[in-house]
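Page 37, continued from 36.
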């Protein structure tokens, strides 16, 4: 059986060999099922992970033309970032917007997601070797120091154990690697207001995070290099749908203008979405034991 690249056994760290129905560790003999060509490591995931969800933004009534304009502006923040040749997308299943922004820029793109329905609709960057695995961000079946970038886009507030996920990101990154976080900013004025009005997406997020909370999660393992927030204004969906009369660029300009105007009033880190770039604080060889202890 051929060895699986770039995966490892999450039980002992051994090499995995592929068969038609399972991947088996050559060292400890643990086997992991292969379903529709995707190896499942869900047995090693913490209890309570979301394991069979499907989200299609085209069918979500909350998504408006201005929502998509915000996503376009957010993913363009990836353009000046040197992501290296190997990228791991934690929770990156489905129509994952950062993937399209990395066309022609990476050699290997590994997606770790817990939902088989999301993985069945997976996007990969053009020109990259794509690997999809059913695994939780809290327990990645990947070797120490194997990646140049770990990106968590819209996922950190869904994880049952974000501390473990951050530790795993530190473990699999090279010392010169980057952690990229893109998500909603619970410190924004509109989210604070919505929190008083019981927002309709409260059941979809296990926790609420702002820039300061992300900083506390990263402390000791990462140093924050860059924080950007944007898209201050979020109006009722029926109002935002009126933007269909504008061109895509016109929709983006509306978001940009509102962002610039309100930034002066509410501060630089109060936007509705945030993008954070962080660097590891420790060399890869020192991180394995710490991550094992965190995941135990």
């Amino acid at each position: 059986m051929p060895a699986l690249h770039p995966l490892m056994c999450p039980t002992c760290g051994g090499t995995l060999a592929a068969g038609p129905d399972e991947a088996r560790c050559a060292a400890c003999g643990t086997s992991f099922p292969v379903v529709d060509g995707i190896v499942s490591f869900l047995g090693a995931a913490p209890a309570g992970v979301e394991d069979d969800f499907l989200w299609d933004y085209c069918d979500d009534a909350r998504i408006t033309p201005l929502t998509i304009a915000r996503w376009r502006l957010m993913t363009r923040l990836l353009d000046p970032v040197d992501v290296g040749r190997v990228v791991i997308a934690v929770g990156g299943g489905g129509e994952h917007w950062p993937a399209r922004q990395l066309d022609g820029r990476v050699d290997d793109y590994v997606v770790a997601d817990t939902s088989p329905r999301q993985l069945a609709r997976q996007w990969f960057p053009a020109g990259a070797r794509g690997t999809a695995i059913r695994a939780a961000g809290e327990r990645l079946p990947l070797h120490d120091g194997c990646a140049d970038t770990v990106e968590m886009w819209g996922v950190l507030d869904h994880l049952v154990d974000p501390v473990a996920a951050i530790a795993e990101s530190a473990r699999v990154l090279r010392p010169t690697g980057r952690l990229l976080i893109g998500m909603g900013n619970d410190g924004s004025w509109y989210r604070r207001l919505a929190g008083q009005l019981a927002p309709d997406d409260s059941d979809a997020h296990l926790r609420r995070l702002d820039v300061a909370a992300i900083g506390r999660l990263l402390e000791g393992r990462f140093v924050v290099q860059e924080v950007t927030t944007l898209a201050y204004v979020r109006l009722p969906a029926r109002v935002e749908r009126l933007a269909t009369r504008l061109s895509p660029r016109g929709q983006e300009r509306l978001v940009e203008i509102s962002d610039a105007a309100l930034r002066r009033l509410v501060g630089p880190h109060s936007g509705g979405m945030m993008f954070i770039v962080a660097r590891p604080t420790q060399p890869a060889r020192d991180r394995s034991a710490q991550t094992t202890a965190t995941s135990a």
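The chain has two domains: 1-35, 48-295. Flag for discussion at group meeting. Confidence is low (pLDDT under 50) at residues 196-204, 284-296.
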